[in-house]
Structures are given as structure tokens and as C-alpha cells.
């Protein structure tokens, strides 16, 4: 559930069927702001925010809140200022004082990501209430959501909205259209088991012939969605030893999530990372999708299976995250949090500090991150006491090339 692809590349891809995301591309292809374009002082990241501003801001704020860091007020204000009167969010509005109109490309993924962040921060009931009302108003008759209002439902968009509903105190199962809930929509995208090691995953959307093809990006998102969880979660307590993808006539969301986790585990059996599905990237690692898979596996209790890809990320994330920016660091923090790993000692590096360096200085210093190794534990205790192209890009963000967790580089999937 979660957008990761570069706007430059997404703009050249064909629309297939998207985000967190928003799916995943090399962030180094992201365009930089033009000399005449001043970057908002409250915005995280230094690349062009046109296609992922709200997404990366939401993930950054949510990640900071998850580790007990109070974001800068102007960073939060920037996000709330991006909201349209309808309650929806677009990826980026350069002039937030201008009224949103029919040309403002609002979408479900950025709106749902903003809800998750603002709900976690607290004190933003008015903004989250309006956003949730808008999301409900554009729910499809099959119970799901597409990237844009009225678009065909997909696994990534539906899942990121489920996370938003849960974060806002709603019961996703009770949010329905035509008698269908978001879980009904996800179950139609769950692929039946066809023996050990195959099946069990989720498709982003059916193809033109109505057939389903599993991909890891949509599956990682849908596992969380089926469990009623958002980007931030902790490890489940179920045991998975010897589990074989289960085939029943009608799966419950929990059963579909378990099958999806089994699919991800099998996909990670040969290598400790998931491979990119982008053209020309054969056998290349998909860092963002791997991080999302770690979160999904942990959420369903597959903690042992999550350890190998997590360890691989700890050793190899550096160059990718430095190029991909704030959403990448946020995804890694979510993966660390889900597995009980210290994000301030992630392969010997401090993810919290690295994320913070991509945005405005926080209002309350994160002393535990800045302290020396000898004083880190003591300081942490002290702190604890104180505590056109638009359509192509939009769909690409969420689905990737037939993949989807919206914004590596789940909405730009960065839904990477």
C-alpha cells in the first residue's frame, strides 16, 4: 500500500489498469526543481514535488511521528495547506491559495496518505474528517477505489484507503457501496492457490480479459489492506511454520492476507530482495517493494521470513534512499518498526536522522538521535519522559507497470 516511481519515467509509460502508495522506479531520474521554482520551505525532499509532494510529505511526517519525533510546524502546515475544499488532496499544488477546480488532479492515494499522517499527528480532525468524507463519496460500487475518482478499483488504492479509514477511527468493513465493502473488492483480486509455491498473491487489477496476474507490489499493499492496517504496523503474533497457500471456495480477508504473505515469502526465497518489474531493469532490486514486503510479512506474523530481506536492506539501502529521498527513508522506518528493529541503528546508520536531514528542522530536537553512542540510551529515556501526463503518471504511481503499492521513488507508488 504503499508511490515509488520517478515522474520522468512514469510519464512515458502506458497506463495499465496504479501509488504508495503509489509503484517503484529509480529516484535519481526524478527531475529537479527549475531555477525559477522555489521549493517550499516546509516540504521534505529536494526534487520536483509535482507528482509526489503530498505523498512524500505524508510518509515523512508519519515516520517521524512513529519514532517519537515532533515534525516542524511548517511541515505539517504545508501538508494541511495542500487540501482542497472538497477534502481531497492532489499530489502537489504550487499555489495552495488558489481554489481547486475541475483541472486539479486530486486522487485517492495522496488523500489517503495524508489522512494516515494527520490522524497519527493528532489535532487535525477537521482535515481528516473532510478527507474521509471525500473518499467515501468516490467509493466504487464494488467497494474499492481506483487512483482517481471513478477509476476502476485496484489493490493498491483500495488498500491505502483502508489504512486511512482505520487511522481515522472508521471500520472499513462498514464503509460500503452497493452492499460491497473494501474487503469485497480486495477479495476479487486475490489469486487462487494452485499448489505449493504458486498462487496466493494479489493482482493490481484484472487484465483486459479479466484474468488476474499476481505481482509483489500489489500483494504487499493488499496484505496490509486485508488485515485492515495502514503503513505503520507491528508484527503479528500468528505462527507461519509450514504454511501452504490455502484454497477455499470463499476466502476471508485474513485468509487472503495469509495467502498473500505466503506468496511474498516464496518470491523472496531465491533472493533476499524483490526484483524490479520496470522495463530494462531485469533482475535489478526493487528496494521500495522489498521494504513494503517486509512490513506486510511482519504484519501477518511472518517475522522470520522478514528477517532476510530486512538484513539485505540494512546492508544495501544507502545509495537508493539517498537518491529516492524522504519517502524511501520513511518506508525503511516502517519496515524497521514493523519488525521491532531500531531505526536509529539500521545497519549501523540512523534512519531517523537521515530522514530529518531531508526536511525542515523539527520543533523538538530528537536528542536520542543526536547523542553519542555512550549517552544514547540515557538521552532516549529523558526524551521519552518529555513526549494527460497527469493521468499516466497518476496511474503509474499506484500500479507501476501493472504493479502497484502507490507511491521506490507505493506514490511517485513515492505509493516508491
From TrEMBL:
Compositional bias per record (Basic and acidic residues), positions renumbered to this chain: 372-382
Species of origin: Streptomyces lutosisoli
Identification of the protein by name: Prenyltransferase/squalene oxidase repeat-containing protein
Region (Disordered): 357-382
Residue ranges, compositional bias (Low complexity): 361-371
Keywords assigned by UniProt, alphabetized: Membrane, Repeat, Signal, Transmembrane, Transmembrane helix
Residue ranges of the TM segments: 388-407
Sequence ranges assigned to domain Prenyltransferase alpha-alpha toroid in this UniProt record: 57-162
Signal peptide positions on this chain: 1-26
